[in-house]
Amino acid sequence: MLTPEQAQARAAQAIDRARARGADAADAILIADTALSVSVRLGALEDVGRSEGGELGLRVFVGKRSASVATSDLSDAALDEVAERAVAMARLAPEDAWAGLAPAERLMKGTAPLLDLDDGGDVAPEALKAQALAAEDAARAVAGVTNSEGGSASASRAVVALATSHGFAGSYAVTSHGVSASVLAGTGSGMQRDYAHHSARHRASLEAPEAIGRLAGERAVARLDPARIASGAMPVVFDPRVGSSLLGHLTGAIAGPGVARGTSFLRDALGTAVFGPGVTIRDDPHRPRGLRSRPFDGEGLPVSPLAIVEGGVLQSWLLDSASARQLGLEPTGHATRGIGGGPGVGTSNLYMEAGRITREALIGEIEHGVLVTELIGHGVNGVTGDYSRGAAGFLIEKGEITRPVAEITIAGNLRQMFAGLVPASDLEFRYGVNVPTIRIDGMTVAGG
Predict the structure, then answer these.
(1) Model-level pTM?
(2) CATH fold of the domain at 4-221
(3) What pLDDT digit, counting tens, does each position of 161-196 carry?
């Protein structure tokens, strides 16, 4: 696999070829990775997968016209062909008044922050198999578990390089490690499935596979014999493993392209109270070993921690350079970049700060409601904020979590949901997006 320095040099070479063929400006991203995964089922090895490769995406500008071409062939001849094709396509593309590279004066300069994202380790398949077996064995050992969808373990390493024709070149490496288990409990039509997983940048930071497996088994057994629930308005509590989806709806609503088009339900909300005064939401790209940490954004701009919501008030849009130009603002360092096409917009390590009330107290105040541990479907309208999703979880009765519930629907409007949201104090950093337990009163719940 290419080193970060080699990947950065190759991206720069692609730009040089594009400029030589008539491009006014260009940028290139190169992502090279290697991945190894092992899966087991019922104590036996089921699959071993290994992949290794690299891809380069070249974006060129001819005036206000642009085009993007991607290739997995990184040879000199292939880069020549990609550059020629990209410039020819750009000359035929329609003009875009907002297109262009990031402002040169805003590019990251100097040494990139040290984020400790690469543990440098090389994991043997035998070690991954042992982890997968340990996770599945622990899950199957839980009383009530009757079958297994398997256990798995994985390790990967990726190198990311970005270069632009107006002065930026940067690269970094990241490793990823993961362990998961998925099992079933019960028999016949009453069977229930659940899972658990953990991911980390460093292998040494992974939770024990036995703990992950045991949690998967306990979750599956807890879902047996779901009760029916009467429909009505009631408090809904979002477990942290599903509550993060609410932040996904927020970031979609404050992403620059949608705001510029006027297609977001929060298009007029900047500087206003969107949440209650006890809610603060931050984005931290510099979190050491963070699952979404990065030293620069998808356009070569520096990134820094940002309070997106402070004391309930929306403080910032998420802007790449094109949407910033359209709105007459400055980019915020939230451009994301894949191999194909131009930049998009996204966050890094996004999280909602912990509240002041414990999870137990948050639930203890509820006479009749539901705790949601699984969400199904994508019934969210980004233009109106209307929200309706299938769900499963547990009934809350007189302040206690009691019987499981399944095949229910929870509905509301994100404007009202955000305004009434109350966070608990149990924030943990386990995922790329993290929230504490969240309570929203007055949602409509339709029983299954």
Answers:
(1) 0.95
(2) PmbA/TldD fold (3.30.2290)
(3) 999 999 999 999 999 999 999 999 999 888 999 999
